[in-house]
Amino acid sequence: MGGRAGNGGVDKRRMILDAAIRVFARRGFHSCRVSDVADEAGVAYGLVYHYFDSKEEILNTLFTERWQLMLDAIVDIDKQDDQSAREKLYGVASFIVDSYRYEPDLMKVIIVEVTRAANSFGRDHLGKIREAYDLIAVIVEGARQDGSFKSDISADFAAMCFYGAIEQLLSGWIFGLLPATEEEFEKAKGLVVETICGGLESAPATVSG
To answer: Alpha-carbon distance 105 to 108, whole Å?
Structure first.
């Protein structure tokens, strides 16, 4: 079908996924057809079906690939034993904010069409979405155990608040409610960590003299 072996097939598949990101971000997943993705990619309609059974499979693939990268990043961040929970959470916030900074269309598609689509794709991927909360909760639980975070706020609740705050930030940029500038991206990382960690920490991180 594809007519090419080796990297050619992989490249065509990637080209279709990249085209789908642009089309889904511009027009919305439900307003698009497979033919729109094919047109955007500059390939024959049938070639899309060579790699994907449906536009739903394309969206599922985009989500699963990107989400796994984030899950892997959170695991790696938590392995930094020389860092405090606050520093680890800053690392998580940085990864997610930078994901939007460098791939805004892809993150728009994931948030608008998947994680916030409670009655469709969000429901289908709830288990995978919860994995992110659970990994963040592991970081919080470590701080609860060593006394640096309050014990009366559960790790699960704190993780949900933390991720929810970051996703709301991304939504603000996606919908033009917040200025999407380099300065704002950097400032937001620290502000979201300060907002959440400030409520979790047993004592202030710094004490003025």
So the answer is: 5
